[in-house]
Specification:
heterodimer, A: 6-stranded mixed sheet, 5-stranded antiparallel sheet, 11 strands, globular, B: mainly beta, 7-stranded mixed sheet, 4-stranded antiparallel sheet
Chain lengths: 110, 117
């Protein structure tokens, strides 16, 4: 069974600082990895999807890397803003199924 | 384009009562998922539909949970009878698999927050 771990569980930074969120998984035989954002009381919004053959994906201030052999992915958010405050979840795709981590709750202080 | 629609958004019931959740996926998405999310945890898959067929219901507690997706569009998830431990957020998601075997980007609804008293 795929186990997905996200560290840290919570993170608080001042506005403008870069964010680094970590995700690790136990089974490297994956098809893809996705990063989601979840705001309180709302559903999940997909941020980035990295196919297993890719090393990274970028979208605006977001950059996600994937090291499948070591079972790790990192989400970088540059120049954080208060609007980036949310919970960020990592999900590993095995065939049709997504296995989620518990998330990292980010607070960006103005 | 409208997103995934779920109703109700909140539901409070007493234990042993039945409850039902409804989901309308994004138009044209043939794959529909129901997830359970406990507080402080990531979502866990309950059931996956390809059109009207439940192709993965291995994590669905079939003694009290049931689901259907008539005509391959809307879906309903039911719990009968509800237990205290069923208090959680129930999320619906949809995707357009396009015949591939890889999980494509899933689009999530806002969820239904269930409280069982």
């Amino acid at each position: 069974k795929q186990e997905v771990t996200q560290i840290p569980a919570a993170l608080s930074v001042p506005e403008g600082e870069n964010l680094v969120l970590n995700c690790s998984f136990t089974d490297s035989a994956i098809y893809n990895l996705q990063w989601f954002r979840q705001d309180p009381g709302k559903g999940l919004t997909s941020l980035l999807l990295i196919q297993s053959s890719q090393r990274e994906q970028t979208s605006g201030r977001l950059n996600a890397s994937l090291d499948k052999s070591s079972g790790r992915s990192t989400l970088y958010i540059a120049a954080s803003q208060p609007g980036d405050s949310a919970t960020y979840l990592c999900a590993v795709g095995d065939d049709y199924k997504l296995s989620f981590g518990a998330g990292t709750t980010v607070t960006v202080r103005a | 384009e409208a997103g995934v629609v779920q109703s109700p958004r909140y539901k409070i019931i007493e234990k042993k009562q039945p409850v039902a959740f409804w989901c309308n996926p994004i138009s044209g998405h043939n794959t529909l998922y129901w997830y359970l999310q406990n507080l402080g945890q990531g979502p866990e898959l309950l059931i996956r539909y390809e059109n009207e067929e439940a192709v993965d219901d291995s994590q669905l507690p079939k003694d009290r949970f049931s689901a259907e997706r008539l005509k391959g569009v809307d879906s309903t998830l039911k719990i009968q009878p509800a237990e205290l431990g069923d208090s959680a957020v129930y999320l619906c998601a949809s995707s357009s698999q396009g015949g591939t075997t890889r999980p494509d980007t899933q689009y999530f609804g806002p969820g239904t927050r269930l409280t069982v008293l």
